[in-house]
Write a structure and sequence with these properties.
- This protein has six helices and 32 strands.
- The chain has helices spanning 43-50, 63-77, 126-132, 143-159, 210-217, 227-239, and strands spanning 19-20, 28-36, 57-58, 84-91, 99-106, 111-120, 166-169, 173-176, 181-190, 196-203, 223-224, 243-246, 250-253, 259-267, 272-279, 289-300, 305-315, 318-327, 335-346, 350-361, 367-380, 392-404, 415-428, 436-448, 453-466, 477-479, 493-495, 497-510, 513-526, 529-544, 547-556, 565-573.
- The strands form five sheets. The chain has a 16-stranded antiparallel barrel. A five-stranded mixed β-sheet has the order 1-4-5-2-3.
Length: 574
């Protein structure tokens, strides 16, 4: 890729600084900055340009040169190349404990774009390029924006199959008149050769089959080169969790004078065993220990197959067990198939068994459409005599959409996961229980700030509705624990309908580790009343070798440390 960018300078008048008041060389805090004389340039723009911060310590006599250079750059970058500082006044209190600055500027004639000229063999792209270029006739001319326009043009040409495009800028031609300095700006664009990717390869595969990696990438052979699609393919590979690193793709020329692209990858273990423990004091004196174990066999035989076993004990009266198997490419297509079995045991209430299958289809990168069929059987304990505890059998149909744009599944720096699912369950044999509808919405967004700081915002909603009254207790939404409200034990909160919010401020200490503060809040709508709960705390995700430890401690709102809930999970990969 070759990129050329030449921009001629525009005449800049010398800046004269005048000072009033007695200067001192002693460092002092800056108390206030006043700007005057500016019309088009806002105070905020000037303050950001001169890069002085109220409250910071400066030596007043050393600020002249600094203001000289920053005001010149400010004017050029914002379309006022002839901006001038008429005067700078430094004011000090009698005890000289701080100082104020008053800056009077003269903007001079602005530089505005009169004409934009695009040259080269680009007739088929001209209309699109005019929308890509943000510099418009009549706008203030900014070299920074013009240079960024060059990069946008290069990126667009790469997206439409021209990775060898060259872009050079014309010398800027100023035209002086009474109201402004007109600028004639131009680019010459040489598209180069249109590239089709006839070969897609992966370097570094040891376990994963090349055909499996190709399917995960969602690329197609004989398609034009597209830099955006290649970046999406790189992220698709990373989101599998099979690779510790996927480098930027490299273009190469085959022996048949055709082009291909190569993805260098580093594979990592894809199977894991994890165990977790939690503790919270119980008001009734019952054992407060909770735990879970998960075993995952991932990327079986290099074909992307997956097998999971899950066991969980939330308290002495509630346990669950689950099995799931995934076949990722049914009929050699991007269609996945899942088979699953789940069992929940609630002492003196019920045993709930669920089994079924799901199909997933990915029409485009990041998007997955899922549909499934479910069979649910509830066996009530004979001790319980309430109507809601009666045994029942249901068959359900479900549909949903999942969008995953994260750059990393373990410790993302950007992107998010958004899913919506609805399920309709049809009851059999018992008239007391009519049809059920279950809805689930889960939205998580990662906000990137100044590295290594990021924030995670999770918004969730789940409900169970029936056509005749309150749904049975076994179908209520269950919350609490390490993935929902961390100030409570696993599944300690129940309601037919609930929404909750998870907020985390994360400090990334490594590619797969972080420290974080957390705030969780939930709304539960129960029969005849609703309830709000809150919790807050701290946590850490640490990776050492093939082991990963996630620890968090959280307190319910208005409670002391005696009510703190500790969650730990250790994951070993192999």
């Amino acid at each position: 890729m070759q990129k050329q960018n030449t921009t001629t300078g525009i005449l800049i008048l010398l800046i004269h600084l005048g000072a009033v008041g007695l200067l001192t060389s002693a460092p002092l805090p800056l108390h206030k900055i006043d700007i005057s004389g500016n019309v088009e340039l806002s105070d905020r723009t000037v303050l950001d340009g001169i890069k002085l911060q109220v409250g910071e310590i400066y030596e007043p006599e050393k600020l002249f040169d600094r203001l000289d250079s920053t005001i010149v750059n400010l004017g050029i970058n914002f379309g006022f190349p002839f901006v001038d500082i008429d005067s700078v006044q430094f004011d000090f209190p009698p005890d000289s404990t701080y100082f104020d600055i008053v800056i009077h500027i003269s903007e001079g004639l602005p530089a505005k774009v009169d004409t934009i000229i695009l040259n080269g063999s680009i007739n088929q792209f001209r209309d699109k390029l005019e929308t890509v270029i943000l510099t418009k006739p009549g706008s203030f001319f900014s070299p920074l924006r013009w240079n960024a326009d060059v990069q946008r043009v290069v990126a667009y040409m790469e997206e439409v199959g021209y990775p060898f495009a060259e872009v050079s800028t014309h010398p800027l031609v100023p035209v002086f008149n009474s109201t402004h300095v007109g600028v004639i700006a131009g680019m010459t664009i040489s598209p180069g050769r249109l590239v089709y990717l006839e070969d897609i390869r992966f370097k570094g595969l040891k376990r994963t089959r090349p055909q499996t990696a190709f399917r995960i990438s969602k690329l197609k052979r004989s398609e034009p080169y597209n830099s955006r699609q290649l970046e999406l393919a790189r992220r698709n590979l990373l989101r599998t969790g099979w690779f510790s690193e996927v480098e930027s793709p490299q273009l190469f020329l085959t022996a048949k004078d055709q082009f291909g692209v190569l993805f260098p990858v580093n594979e990592q273990p894809t199977s894991s065993f994890s165990g977790g423990l939690g503790y919270s004091p119980q008001a009734d004196g019952a054992d407060g220990i909770a735990g879970s174990m998960d075993a995952v066999l991932g990327n079986l035989f290099g074909g992307g197959r997956r097998f999971e076993i899950h066991w969980q004990r939330d308290n002495p009266k509630y346990q669950s067990f689950a099995l799931r198997y995934r076949e990722p490419y049914l009929f050699r297509q991007n269609v996945s198939g899942d088979l699953f079995f789940e069992q929940e045991f609630a002492d003196s209430l019920y045993v709930l068994q669920t089994f079924g299958s799901e199909l997933g289809f990915s029409p485009v990168s990041n998007w997955t459409v899922v549909t499934g069929i479910t069979r649910r059987l509830s066996h009530a304990d004979t001790i319980v005599v309430s109507q809601d505890s009666l045994s029942y059998t249901m068959t359900g149909l479900s549909a949903g959409v999942i969008v995953d744009t994260r750059d990393n599944v373990v410790n993302p720096r950007e992107g998010g996961v958004y899913s919506v699912k609805t399920e309709r369950l049809y009851a059999e044999k018992h008239a007391f229980l009519k049809n059920l509808t279950k809805n689930k919405i889960q939205l998580q967004q990662i906000l990137s700030f100044s590295y290594p700081w990021v924030a995670s915002i999770g918004l969730n909603y789940m409900d169970t509705r029936t056509e005749n009254g309150t749904p049975p207790f076994s179908e209520w939404v269950r919350m609490g624990g390490i993935t929902t409200i961390r100030g409570y034990q696993e599944n300690a909160l129940t309601a037919p309908r609930s929404a909750w919010l998870n907020l985390e401020a994360r400090y990334l200490t490594g590619k797969n580790s972080r420290l974080y503060g957390l705030v969780d809040t939930a709304w539960l709508e129960k029969p005849k009343r609703s309830e709000w709960v809150y919790s807050y705390g701290l946590g850490a995700l640490v990776k050492a070798g093939n082991n990963q430890l996630n620890v968090s401690v959280a307190l319910p709102a208005n409670e002391g440390w005696s009510a703190a809930v500790l969650h730990t999970r250790l994951i070993t990969v192999f």
